[in-house]
Amino acid sequence: MKKSRIGALAMTVAGTAAMMGVSAAPAQAGTAGYNLCAEATSLWSNRLCLYYNSNQEGSFAGFTKSVPDLAPWIFGHIGTTTVGQGQPVKNNAASAANPGSPCWRVYYNSNYAGPSDTINGYSYRQLVNTYNENASVKVC
Description:
By secondary structure, the protein is α+β, with helices and mostly antiparallel strands. 17% of the residues lie in helices and 27% in strands. The protein has one domain: Crystallins (Gamma-B Crystallin, domain 1), CATH 2.60.20. Strand 1 (48-53) and strand 2 form a beta hairpin.
């Protein structure tokens, strides 16, 4: 009798969650952080988000303007996980998302110098030329 009540309760909760559009399924890898960065609230739109891990995973930092030296910045926002939270952004970013229209460049050196990765508007990608070697970001 006790098991059937628990089962009925679980089915009721699951049914209510489904009707409300809530899903208990884990987020799809590689898109959850991007979706968080690109939420419809104006909080993240038109920003560059740099992520601590590949595939837009882990903690992230958001930028609204060009930054010539990322040394003072830390990964302060919880993305898909808390991994990287509190770590410096400089030389620690592995991927990026750009939920807005301007393109952004991530540079290997401070003051927008050296190799770079371009993140076009409304896209996300792995950092290739600046993977864990990023020192500045600039709006294209």
